[in-house]
Design brief:
Order of helices and strands of chain A: EHHHHEEEHEHEHEHEEHEHHEHEEHEHH
Oligomer: homodimer
Structural class of chain A: alpha/beta
Number of strands of chain A: 14
Strand content of chain A: 15-25%
Radius of gyration of chain A: 26 Å
């Protein structure tokens, strides 16, 4: 971790830089995968699975009807986490709006669930069952009827048992063993087995990212743009150095492109945390990832608290831990962050798994304009208006005037005809 | 308008087809415009304005400080419409969420306005001042600090007075005279004069659409995908044929690619409305557009009401007028629509201008997954969690278990360290 002592504001934009994303030129490849999925459907998906995953599958649908057994303590933990996530997302349900904007003019906003949601879960060493919880529970609470999981098969053509169990606990029956850009193409276009999705959610590699980008440009919603995970810890001397170090490491172990930032007002605190980092990192299994991530990472000392606040907002962290005296009082100063963790007993891992908030959050500075996944991600709004005779008499002449000024005679006429009948 | 009498369900997908979008291959051109704007900034914008709009401007910023005079009746209409729009969008403000998901685990959702909003208003014959209202008022109500308008200069290098006045009435001071893909590139990238936007909103031609698409793929939000405007009128014999015809025409006059659909249960009603169409169209200034649009349009007769509901939801209209006995009772059957208009005295023009609802709505079937512009368009959400010692004791072991199962040792360790101190 490199330390910057009271850096000039002019240098902040470079201090806020994330690791460069690989400027991969995958567009042509992904477009060719889309074209093949569009013309050949399921057959193309099975062929890609044979080619890229090295597994010959008979069909795409995974039969998840036999109850899967996992460590009962883990099952209990998943159920408890699910309960917290459900509770927090249920509380996000927006109220319908129903008002008279003027006498006789009633306007409403109603909410409806999306119909079909695709959840992509990558393969690899770690089974991301927590991401199944974070994407499926808000969709279920929103009232989505058709939710399916897309995930590549393991080497034997099977599915990780914890993913299988998590889907069973949530009542998600549709799991398709297909991964990569071809899985996203299937959700974007629809095939014989896989229904075209209204939204495609979930993390993935650069092929998945490019395929989600293409889906979005064709009018399918996606959860948010992809980027490596990141954490900013904003601390003062009320923090415990070993806790801060453990939080920085829990972010750093995600991957070598993860970024962690420590922001505080004292070099001594930085040094203390650095010593804890050096000590704790030795015991990590994922030490190679963590070491690389720490090379991209920064400790920033700013004496002035106003500048600290400005820095947080300019960086716009995915995860923001505030361990300062009266941490809660800083909430109203934060404009840009994905999720905020307050105090010494709120590690990032809590939000990653079980507190109830969503862990699908905007990275890479996108917290400036994107929100994390929420109940609203899976809802759309419809407006309604109803005007009675009195309302039309009052509002009609205004509409006529405005339509005329926009040179739209038929718009005006639709009102004039009615007003004439109401004379 | 072609009539379909009780068409088979298998034919519905072709009946729901919109006019083909021009498969323009503008990507390379728009990418080259982005590249020039990125490297040359304002200078590139002025050069493109000279090239495409035929006007040599000294600077981009339009001086809108001198008060503009317009027809006082029109000014009054704009003010009254603005008041209704403000009232309806203010009522959409979401409540912060603040709950304990379990004892000692507090979770919150807070909302923050986006910082910078770009509003694109196309040039052309009709000055779209109503779109300024529909995009700026929700942004202002959301609390956005930096709102600017991008619009091409007229032939003399000036600005339409009604656009100028509308901006003055709303207090929007920043207007930049630049149009086309270069305007969108400026908002997506930022230049010396124009701040990089968090969201780019507003309608435009195929160059603007392609440029918004590119902005979105680089992580700038856009309001929604573009497509020609459309209307479905769902009627029974309680409707007035001349009103329905006037509504169909007000949609048809938008452009030759507009689409109007009439859905009802009787051929007689179709014929009656068709006669009114033939009569009213003769008096329209925009008869050429309307006639062409009606060629793409359909009257669909379905005897069964359940099938009518299915058809509406499959078509997913941008605008849906319901003129049926007890029209309001059908609201809970509608899953997919941008905005709904109930009864004989609620023409589409009312929502286009003045009822209070937003007229920036999803077209082209995107009402299946997109929402119209609302207050929420200009807000982002941030989650917060705070766990106390009691909460950590309860939730900690669950987090450890889940982190371990995802093979993330440092995530587990961040909790273990804390739990050890709480023994």
């Amino acid at each position: 971790m490199k330390t910057y002592n009271n850096p000039e504001k002019s240098s902040w934009s470079s201090l806020c830089k994330r690791a460069q994303l690989e400027a991969s030129n995958l567009q042509e490849l992904v477009e060719s995968i889309y074209a093949k999925v569009a013309s050949e459907g399921d057959k193309a998906l099975l062929a890609y699975t044979a080619q890229f995953d090295g597994v010959d599958l008979k069909g795409l649908k995974y039969d998840n009807t036999t109850e899967t057994s996992i460590d009962p303590e883990l099952e209990k933990a998943i159920k408890d986490a699910a309960r917290n996530i459900r509770k927090f997302h249920k509380a996000q349900r927006p109220n319908d709006v129903d008002i008279e904007t003027m006498p006789g003019v009633r306007c409403q906003m109603l909410y409806r669930p999306l119909e079909t949601v695709a959840i992509y879960i990558p393969g690899g060493t770690a089974p991301l069952f927590s991401t199944v919880l974070m994407l499926a529970i808000p969709a279920l609470e929103a009232g989505v009827k058709n939710i399916y999981i897309l995930t590549p098969p393991d080497k034997t053509g099977g599915l990780n048992p914890v993913i299988s169990k998590t889907a069973q606990l949530l009542g998600i029956q549709d799991i398709f063993l297909v991964g990569g850009a071809q899985a996203i193409a299937a959700a974007a276009l629809g095939t014989e087995s896989i229904t075209k999705a209204d939204i495609i959610t979930g993390p993935g590699n650069q092929y998945v990212t490019e395929a989600k980008n293409l889906a979005q440009s064709e009018g399918v919603l996606i959860d948010m743009p992809a980027g490596p995970s990141e954490l900013l810890v904003w601390a003062d001397n009320t923090c415990k150095a070993k806790y801060v170090a453990s939080d920085l490491l829990s972010q750093a172990e995600h991957g070598s492109d993860s970024q962690v930032i420590l922001l505080c007002d004292s070099i001594e605190l930085v040094n203390e945390i650095q010593m804890e980092l050096d000590k704790q990192i030795q015991n990590l299994e994922r030490i190679t990832f963590a070491e690389k991530a720490l090379q991209n990472s920064r400790a920033i000392v700013l004496a002035d608290e106003g500048l600290q606040i400005d820095f947080v907002n300019q960086y716009a962290p995915e995860h923001l831990i505030i361990v300062k005296n009266n941490a809660r009082e800083y909430l109203n100063k934060i404009e840009n962050a994905g999720s905020i963790f307050l105090g010494n007993y709120t590690p990032e891992s809590a939000g990653d798994y079980a507190s109830g908030t969503n862990h699908t959050l905007p990275t890479y500075g996108f917290a400036k304009n994107y929100s994390g996944v929420s109940l609203r991600t899976f809802l759309k709004s419809i407006t309604v208006q109803e005007i009675d005779e009195k309302g039309m008499r009052a509002i009609g002449p205004k509409i006529e005037k405005m339509a005329e000024a926009e040179l739209l005679g038929a718009h005006k006429n639709a009102v004039t005809l009615r007003l004439n009948d109401l004379l």
